[in-house]
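Subject: for your reference before the review

Hello V.,

The reviewers asked for a structural picture of the protein, and I figured it would be easier to keep everything in one thread rather than splitting it across files. Below is the amino acid sequence we used in the manuscript, unchanged from the supplementary table.
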Amino acid sequence: MCKEFVVLEYRDGDVYVPLAHLDLIKVVDSENIPHRLDSLSGSTAFGVTESGRNTRLRKSMHAARVKTRAKIRKQLVNLNTLYANRLTQKRAVFPIDPEAEQRFNNSCGFKLTRDQQRATDEMLADLSKCTRPMDRLLCGDVGFGKTEVAMRAAFRVLAAGKQVALLAPTTILAQQHYQTFRGRFEESFPNIKIACLTRFARRATVLEEREMLSSGEMSIAVGTHMLLGDSVQFKDLGLLIVDEENRWGCEPKGKASNEVSRCRYLNHVGNTDSSHLASCPQWAEGYVGTENSSAWAEVRNHASGTERRGCCAQRYSNRN
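And here is what came back from the structure prediction:
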């Protein structure tokens, strides 16, 4: 008689569990993330083993649960302390330079949507009317103009003599932001220097740009995890932008932001501020064309075969 089994893979062998005893198996992580396999003979072996090892396994599982709870509790305490410190911090408001900001805004090349304008006004009000450090979540789909809102907020901080950092999850995205910021800032305001700190950059260039950041000669730093290293020091950082924060882990984002699920919950209960971009810019609509156009058909066919990206998020935080 043929029987079916579920195979549990361990470091030093496999365990075959009959389907009749499938209820003995519990899924602890449904994500497709590689984990370190446990050993059948070691103290961390969880699962179906000989009856003589049951006592040791129960103790080991209990110890693992206690250790996990302790780590979670420590993380909660750290987050609670982080938010408490943010609420008690005060900073000076950023001054407004209407003439310079108008010149920068005119270089945009297109008119802001109503949502973009509202988000920009909310961020600039946070910077220039509130003494509490800004902690705002900007949500919007791809191509809805989050980067333009970010650059306008960054310009006000730069005009006050502060520095700006933009944190991106990948080197490619960091390079794209670097090119975008260079196109907007360096042409009209050549005194604003921009660095790109990623693994693609030459070591000599990275060392030079680090020195310029610490001395204040470099105004904007765009980069990946490298920006979070102890070797990168800012002379006077005024604004931190975290792009695609749903792709950042909890540890590196603890310095600036949170996981998206936690951000949305905190915003729902009123602990953080948020702005939302729900309308597509006119220049993007014109690029796609009408629904019956061949360009639109191509986009529709491509979207049907790929997974649609969800809501992207950028977080803006300043503490000075």
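For the response letter, the relevant points are probably these. The chain has a mean pLDDT of 77. Residues 102 and 152 are 10 Å apart (CA to CA).

Happy to draft the paragraph if you're swamped.

O.
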